[in-house]
Amino acid sequence: MRATGQRITSLDTLKPRPGQSGLFGRHLLETKNYDQAIGFLSNGLSSEPSDSLLLRDLAHSYLFKGDLTKAIELYQQYLNSGHNSTRSELSKSLKNDFEYFRRAGFDHSIIKKASGMLSL
């Protein structure tokens, strides 16, 4: 006998467990659903404020949505978060992410602009 499932008709009804907001948010970011990604990642940060990956992906979501000012503000917070990592390690992680998005066909010009503003 199979367990019954529930069809999700709206992401607003989905209640992620701790640690899942980042997974859902990253998937939404990579599928270019920026507003929904921002919602998941913001909610995740509310419950897990020390998760720097949520902060980084939230910054990416704002960047690709077109809000460069908000993205840079969040990237700066990410680079200064350094709970378990040095700024150098966080910068390297951010560079790797930017390269990933370049290869995945995201807007190269906005990535270059953000990278320059962050002196990466």
**Helical amount:** 55-70%
Structural class: mainly alpha
Share in β-strands: under 5%
Give a short account of the largest sheet: none
The helix tally amounts to 6
Distance between the termini: 54 Å
Write structural notes for this entry.
The longest helix has 17 residues, at 87-103. With 120 residues, the protein is mostly helical. The chain has 6 helices and no strands. α3 runs antiparallel to α4 (68-81).
Write the layout of secondary structure elements.
Elements: H1 20-30, H2 34-47, H3 52-65, H4 68-81, H5 87-103, H6 108-117
Give the gist of this structure.
With 120 residues, the protein is mainly alpha-helical. The protein has helices at 20-30, 34-47, 52-65, 68-81, 87-103, 108-117.
Summary tags:
67% helix; single chain; 120 residues; mainly alpha
